[in-house]
Amino acid sequence: MTSYAAQTTVDTGRSREEIERTLTRFRATQVAWMRDDETGRVIVAFKRDGKTYKFVLQMPTLTDRMIQYTPKQMILRTDAQRRDALEQERRRRFRSLANLLKATLDAIDTGIISEEAALLSNLILPNGSTVQEFLLPQIDRMLEAGEMPDLRHALTAGEDRR
C-alpha cells in the first residue's frame, strides 16, 4: 500500500504555513502550535465558531521500524538513510494533516457534513482533553461490559444547567 504524499518534497514549514492559511480561510479565529519533544507529537489547535479543536500529529523516530528498515525488502538502513527516511516521513505526515484539514473544512462549508459530525472527536472539552480522548476509554469499558452506563443522572444534570 502506498502512503499519501510518500514522495513529497514539500518541507514541513511550508505545510505548516499552508495549514495556517487553510485555517484562516475557513474562519479559524485563533491558531496555536505546540511541539512536545517528550512524546514526539506536534499539536495544532484552533478556534472556529466559538469551539476549540485540537489535532495531534505523532512524529516518527529513528527507532521506528518503518524508519530503520526499507519497506519492501525489510533491509536495515544505514544511519544516513534512516535520517533521510525520518525527514521524508515527517514531510509526509505534515502533508497528510494539511490535506485532512483542507478537505474536512471544505466539506463542512460546502454542507456535505456538519461541523459537529466532522470535528466532534477533536473538540476540546473543559478539562483540556478532546472528546475522543475522553470517550474512547469509556467506550472500551462499555464494549467489554456489553452494556450502556446509566445515563439518568447525566441527563438530569444536563437539564439543571438549562
Give the helices and strands, then pairings:
Elements: H1 12-25, E1 28-36, E2 41-48, E3 51-58, H2 65-68, H3 79-110, H4 115-119, H5 131-145, H6 152-160
Number of strand elements: 3
Q: What's the Cα radius of gyration?
A: 20 Å
How much strand content do the residues show?
Answer: 15-25%
The SSE string, one letter per element, is HEEEHHHHH
Characterise the protein shown here.
By secondary structure, this protein is an alpha+beta fold. It folds into 2 domains: 12-124, no CATH class; 125-162, no CATH class. It is 49% helix and 15% strand. The protein is built from 6 helices and 3 strands, in the order αβββααααα. Strands 1-2-3 form a 3-stranded antiparallel sheet, with helices on one face. A hairpin with a 2-residue loop joins β2 (41-48) and β3 (51-58). The longest helix has 32 residues, at 79-110. It is globular, with a radius of gyration of 20 Å. The model has no long low-confidence stretch (mean pLDDT 91).
